[in-house]
Automatic annotation (TrEMBL):
GO terms for molecular function: calcium ion binding. Keywords: Calcium, Disulfide bond, EGF-like domain, Glycoprotein, Kelch repeat, Laminin EGF-like domain, Membrane, Repeat, Signal, Transmembrane, Transmembrane helix. Residues 232-273 form the EGF-like domain. This is Multiple epidermal growth factor-like domains protein 8. PANTHER family: DISTRACTED, ISOFORM B, LEUCINE-ZIPPER-LIKE TRANSCRIPTIONAL REGULATOR 1. The keyword Repeat applies. GO terms for biological process: animal organ development; system development. It is found in: Membrane. It comes from Culex pipiens (House mosquito). Disulfide bonds join 326-335, 338-352, 377-386. Residues 308-354, 355-409 form the Laminin EGF-like domain. Its main location: membrane.
Length: 790
């Protein structure tokens, strides 16, 4: 009896604990007698694990009756005595049991953890939820919760001092319909004129628990009840919208939308920007200040909704079906056909596409097939898009590129347009053999049926970047006329000789109706050139040329390739009496004291003035014969025993240093161009002037030494020694022994015969190292050796 709790009692193995009387008794006693209360008795508890704990009690009464426990009302749990000063220790102080509380307020607000079931309107302890509401009779419940954000304290006394938050539902607490209908058994009483004005009260789908007209203090005809969904509010009518001033409000159930008025664009709330009043169906608005529809091509009308009936390829300002101007490569009354130079179907959405012929389509044939787009190729091209050069031509014709006629030993071209020739592809015989090394192009344009094209100008041009021909080793010869294949010496005239020293584009013209180009192919060398046939007969006289007397000529006062040379520039300042125009030679003859090309410059007697005495481009047609032989100075002229004079080199004011050979027949007074025979391995002398030459009949050769020349930037004084074989028509360098003369120009070279010995004497001249020379040098033609005489 001295033990007052179960665990203390059972610490003594002779004792047992009676749960009925809460006393410790001897295990030797009869349980039915000592552990009894009225008619009820219990077995003694003899195992410590079976001792009752305060936490096992779920009601205040059971907790207090245990004698060793106290009840924490706010937490609704039982704990050992002495742990909290606010705990309930007497039965009279126990809060009312949950099942005796009749409403939500008393259920949740009174002390004790109780739960309120909205569905059954019952208050219960949550510890019995699973046993009493096991079939979902209470899907929602309310219980007491601690204030949000309140820190949890470890002090039970402090925790008990915290007041719970009211959780009971109240329809009257909802201020608007949407919140009201979210709560079960709540509905909205409202004024039909303004559904926003209303109160939330209890009710169901059928009716409200209270009279709505009384709750709202309005007449019954205006009062309405809503339980399933909130009534629609016409914000537009009540002026509760925020639409833009240029927008109209459109009421929708539960909301509203803002739409800009006709003639304005925007979201209807923040902005409504002015635009065209009509909707531009097939077009766009021009903007202020007109704000008119600008129609897409093929449409008309104030709102661009009318089709012009032009297959969307033209405007129709005069009315539907009256097309102004067909666009997009179309033509026809209703722009229903593809125009020349295009293909496709003008009546479909794809329309017409321009021909893709790389700039080589034949315009006379329509450039390409109007249905398939296959090109009608010209300019020596072929392929669907003229992307490949014809046979015997090479190059890249794409993007307007040029095809070049290959090197052939006898190539004849009769094309009347623009065409290219080049030496980078060599002719190969179909039967095999070596490639052609001798290139000869004869350009003889013909019209239909082989009729020769007369009065035509053939322009020939080489760009420096397209030429790799080393001067002194090789050259490109261009002649006006046919090659000398018949022995008639007047058939051709040398127009130009090209090699790499020519760094600016060169254009030369043939006026005989034929042009001949000769070139010997060298290793890793070659060129490409373009020629163009201009004639009034075939309408190819291009600007700035004009047609006059059925001839393609330059405008009055101009001449030369591309008509870029001015004849008698500034009229020779004749009004100032500084010069007069020599129309025959196309030059100015200046008065004393004046100089320059237009006689505009005052000169003194001590001034040195270089004046062009003769330019074959400037002379008039009356002096056409002077174009046959290129004017020059500083050349050499030697005679043979047959009455012929041989001229070599010299300086041309229009072409610079020359290296051509011409023969003059004194019997019939005619000039003949000498064609130099050479192989790709042979070399040729540089063009030169003020050199020395001599004819050696015993060797059938012409010897030349030294002279002045010019490279890309500087003038050169030469010391090379060459011989030209009259029979072989070839140049070769003279083998020399011993010390030779220095670089010389302006010297003389004379043949001296002494018995059977022949020597050449070189006298005087100008030397860069020594100035004017007073020395005499002798070259022995027998031993090929030099010796200094003086």
């Amino acid at each position: 009896s001295e033990y007052n709790n179960c665990l203390h009692c059972l610490a003594d193995s002779l004792c047992g604990w009676c749960e009925t009387t809460n006393e410790c008794v001897s295990r030797q006693e009869n349980e039915t007698m000592v552990c009894r209360r009225g008619e009820n008795w219990r077995y003694l508890t003899v195992n410590p694990s079976q001792c009752s704990n305060c936490s096992n009690y779920i009601s205040c009464e059971q907790c207090i009756e245990a004698g060793i426990c106290e009840w924490w009302a706010e937490d609704a749990r039982c704990s050992r005595k002495g742990r909290s000063v606010t705990a309930v220790t007497e039965l009279e102080a126990c809060p009312a049991p949950c099942y005796l509380r009749e409403n939500c307020s008393s259920c949740l607000n009174d002390r004790g953890r109780c739960v309120w079931c909205e569905a059954t309107s019952q208050c219960f302890s949550f510890s019995v939820y699973t046993s009493e509401y096991q079939f979902g009779l209470c899907r929602e419940w309310l219980d007491q919760t601690m204030p949000i954000g309140m820190p949890q304290s470890q002090d039970p006394a402090q925790q008990h001092s915290i007041q719970p938050i009211q959780q009971c539902k109240s329809c009257a607490s909802h201020q608007n319909c949407s919140h009201c209908l979210r709560s079960l058994s709540c509905g909205w009483c409202y004024d039909v004129d303004n559904p926003i004005e209303g109160v939330c009260i209890q009710g169901d789908f059928n009716r409200s628990a209270f009279d709505c007209s009384t709750a709202l203090n309005i007449t019954e005809d205006r009062a309405r009840w809503s339980y399933a969904q909130c009534p629609d509010v016409d914000e537009c009518e009540l002026g509760l919208h925020d639409c833009h001033a240029q927008a109209e409000c459109i009421n929708t159930h539960g909301s509203y939308t803002c739409r800009c008025r006709k003639g304005f664009l925007g979201d209807g709330i923040r902005n409504c920007i002015q635009t065209c009043y009509e909707t531009c169906v097939h077009g766009y608005c021009s903007g202020g200040p007109e704000y008119k529809c600008q129609c897409d091509l093929g449409w008309t009308g104030i709102d661009c909704s009318q089709n012009c009936a032009c297959n969307n390829h033209s405007t129709c300002s005069q009315g539907v079906g009256k097309c102004d101007k067909c666009m997009n490569w179309t033509e026809g009354l209703h722009c229903e056909r593809c125009s020349p130079g295009s293909f496709g179907n003008a009546t479909t959405q794809l329309g017409c596409q321009p021909c893709d012929c790389n700039g080589h389509g034949n315009e006379a044939l329509g450039i390409c097939d109007s249905q398939t787009g296959e090109c009608y190729c010209q300019d020596n091209t072929e392929g669907l898009k003229c992307e490949v050069c014809n046979r015997n031509f090479y190059g890249d014709p794409k993007a307007g590129g040029q095809c070049y006629y290959q090197c052939e030993p006898r190539g004849v071209l009769t094309h009347i347009g623009t065409q290219g020739i080049g030496s980078h592809q060599l002719h190969k015989s179909a039967r095999g053999g070596t490639e052609a090394r001798e290139c000869l192009w004869i350009i003889s344009p013909y019209v239909k049926h082989g009729v020769e094209l007369k009065n035509a100008i053939i322009q020939f041009e080489i760009e420096p970047q397209d030429m790799n021909v080393t001067c002194g080793q090789n050259a490109i010869y261009v002649y006006d006329g046919l090659p000398d294949l018949t022995g008639v010496t007047l058939q051709k005239q040398l127009l130009a000789v090209f090699c790499n020293e020519n760094k600016s584009p060169w254009i030369t013209e043939a006026r005989s109706g034929h042009l001949t180009v000769h070139y010997r192919q060298g290793h890793d060398q070659g060129f490409k050139a373009i020629y163009n046939v201009m004639s009034c007969n075939i309408n190819t006289c291009k600007r700035p040329y004009i047609c006059s007397d059925n001839k393609c000529v330059c405008p009055k006062g101009f001449t030369g390739p591309r008509c870029s040379l001015k004849i008698c520039p500034s009229d020779c300042n004749v009004e100032q009496k500084q010069g007069v125009c020599d129309a025959g030679y196309g030059r100015c003859i200046c008065a004393p004291g004046f100089g320059d090309a237009d006689c505009s410059r005052q000169i003194k007697p001590s001034n040195i003035v270089f004046t062009e005495l003769f330019n074959s481009y400037l002379i008039s047609d009356n002096f056409e014969h002077l174009r046959k032989t290129l004017p020059r100075f500083g050349h050499t002229l030697v005679a043979d025993r047959r009455g012929s004079l041989w001229m070599f080199g010299g300086y041309s004011l229009s072409h610079g240093p020359l290296n051509d050979i011409r023969q003059f027949d004194t019997k019939n007074n005619t000039w003949m161009q000498v064609t130099v025979d050479s192989s790709p391995e042979d070399r040729m002398p540089l063009g030169r002037y003020f050199h020395a030459a001599e004819m050696i009949m015993s060797k059938q050769a012409i010897y030349i030494y030294g002279g002045l020349s010019r490279n890309q930037t500087d003038h050169l004084v030469l010391d090379d020694f060459w011989q030209f074989g009259l029979q072989s028509q070839r140049w070769s360098i003279v083998n020399q022994k011993g010390s030779k003369p220095p670089q010389l120009a302006g010297h003389s070279m004379t043949l001296i015969k002494e018995a059977d010995k022949e020597v050449l004497l070189v006298i005087g001249g100008f030397s860069v190292s020594a100035g004017l020379s007073t020395h005499i040098w002798m070259f022995d033609l027998g031993s090929n050796s030099w010796s200094k005489v003086l």
